Structure formats: C-alpha cells, structure tokens
Amino acid sequence: MTNHWIDIKNADVVLIIGSNAAEHHPVSFKWIMRAKDNGAALIHVDPKFSRTSARCDYHVPLRSGTDIAFLGGMVNYILESNSYFHDYVVNYTNASFIVGKGYDFKDGLFSGYDAKARKYDQSKWGFEKGPDGAPLRDATLKHERCVFNLMKKHYSRYTLKNVSDITGVSEENLLKVYKQFCATGKPDKAGTILYALGWTQHTVGVQNIRCSTLVQLLMAFRLPTEGKIYFDGRDAATLSRRTIRHNISCVLQRAGIYSGTIRENIAMGRPGASEEELMEAAAVAQMADYIKAQPEGLDHRLEQAGKNLSGGQKQRVSIARAVLKNAPIYLFDDSFSALDFMTEANLRRALAEKAAGRTQIVVTQRVTSAMSSDQIFVMDGGRLVDSGTHRELLERCKVYREIYLSQTGGERR
Known about the structure:
Number of strands: 18
Strand order of the largest sheet: 12-15-16-9-17-18
Largest sheet: 6 strands, mixed
Structural class: alpha/beta
Number of helices: 18
Distance between the termini: 33 Å
Helix content: 25-40%
Radius of gyration: 27 Å
C-alpha cells in the first residue's frame, strides 16, 4: 500500500494479501470499511481466516509463502486479458522502452550472472539508446524486446494451472479475484492492495506514534514541553528517572526477550524472586502451561530476541516480568496485540486480581481491550477528543464509535 489510509475510502476494490489489517490496524481499518459502505469489494487473501476475513466480501485461503506465485498469476492475467490502463502504461512507465540485446532470462537466471562472485553485471540489462542518448521506444508495444513484451514473456509461466498447483487456490477462485481486481484498470476506477504490526485508562489513536509519545513521557524518556505529569501529586520534573521507572511495571510493544533461560528473562522484573513467585507471575501472564510443558521448565533456553517463541509467547514473557515487579503503575504499550482474544481475556482477569489497587495504563488500538476500563481517552489528529466509559463514548463520540463499529461489525455490547 503506497497511498494514504484515508484515500482508501475512494477505492472500488481493496485486495488485502498477507495482512490481518483489521486486527493490526483497527483504527485505520475504518477507511476500508468506508470504502465498503461506498460499494467497494473487499477481498482477503491469506492462509488463515481472521478478523479481516470476517470483514471482507470473501476470503481466499492460500498456502503460506506462495504470495509471489499468486501475484505473478495476476500479472499474467492482466497482460493476457489487456486489463491494464493502456494510456498510463505507454506514457508514464518504461513499458515501451527497448531493452538491449544483452538481456536474457534462462533456467531461472538473468544474463550477466557471475557464478563465482554470485553477482549480476547489470550493464547487460541496459536500454538501447538513440543518437541523443535517450532510450529507444516503441509506443505500439509490438517490439519483441520492449519492456512490455519481455515482461509478458517472463510472466507467461504463471498460468492458472501452475499458480493453482503452487498456491492451492482453485482456478475458479483465482479468476474470481483476478477479474474483480483487474476491472479497476480504468480511468474512472481505483483499486488498492494492502500487504505485507486500580483505575485503568486507555488511549485509542489513529497512529501508534502518538500513543508511543505518551509512553515516552510516562517513562521519562522525554519530559513534556508543555503541561505537567504528576505522580501521586508530585511533579515528574522533580523526581529522578530512577524513581519514576522504579514505580512503573512497563511492557513495551516490542517484547524485550534476551538470550538465556525463561527464568532469567522473567526474573529481570525482580531479581532474587523465588521459583514459586516466578511461576505465579507466569500464570497471570498465561505462560505457565508452556513452561510446564518444557522438560527444563523455567530453565528452558530462549534464543536472542526470542526467535524460538511465537509473537504471543514473547509478549507473555514480558508481561510476566512486569507482573513479577508488581509496581504501583502498570504501563502496557499495545502489549496484547499478538494474543488471541481468549488468552487476552484470561490474562486481563488474572491481572485485575493480581494488580488490584494499582493503576493500569494501556495503549491500544483494540476496542475490546478498552471496553472494561474505568476511563478511556480517545485521541485523533494528535489531540484528545473525548474521554469517558465505553458506553458513554459509544453514545457521544463519533471517532470512538467509528473505531468500534469497524472492529465489531456493528455489534453493540
């Protein structure tokens, strides 16, 4: 996707491939739903059925890692069915440029490949040039070595049968997607592709960058240029960073997992904690079952950055670390984004009991993560637009209501 989120509302077809946009970008997803309200077709191509699939007109499952073949088939379909925008292709791309005779493609390799150096000599791929030094062109797109025809030859291997065999998508469904999306190759049509991140308060904003600013302020990574932050009635500017951070259990959006054991990673929250306390924190974070399933238990080794853990497991280890610290303030920066809804619900219930009497501040784009909060702060355009409970905001706040409806499909709770 190279256009702005807001511009998506003008699309006639939205193809979401390899992305769970409704889950990972729930705020911005409202513009996709706006397009749907205007009559656009929404197509989701992804190995698994997800929240995004439920919002789309239809879901096309394909084998993991076969996206290139799927799109290669679409390129071939566009070229063979003349579905491209001819005037644009001829006048605003290099499709009409004539490539030099040194270019070739054979047995999976382009010409100019040096096997020893494992590099290409790209000078072999240059355009033929006229007396003025400018590339020669064929505006009729009939020259056998113009970019258009070389591309057509290259993608001819992506037949419906070959693509179907590779992706596992039936030829019927491939054609269904290709025809519908490629119908937008006209002056009066537009298609877009999305591809390939106590007293509980929440912020819901259109961009994570704005919410992350709040985290940086609260963690004293930066002090505010205007206004003040108070901790228990004391101005943050009068407190040391050490004091501020000592009183916050923080889980950032990107889980910090280090090479070592699970024990060592969780114990960073409170060095010297007993095994019972470590397992109690893991239980709150819904990580205890995983630990018990490992032969080494807490001493199960983790690779650098937690490469041998799933995204949700990484977040749960980080959450267990924060629970072990059990500071007066819990700060979660989109820390539940990789958890399924059932796991998150169980974790939040356990956390409410463990952190009773403590303040929880949660930066989130998931309305379901905010609904039970005592107070929700809604941000839009970098400004606070409203605050209140879920029911209050649903009734009076247009921004919150749009986010809620885009994520729940209009189901009122």
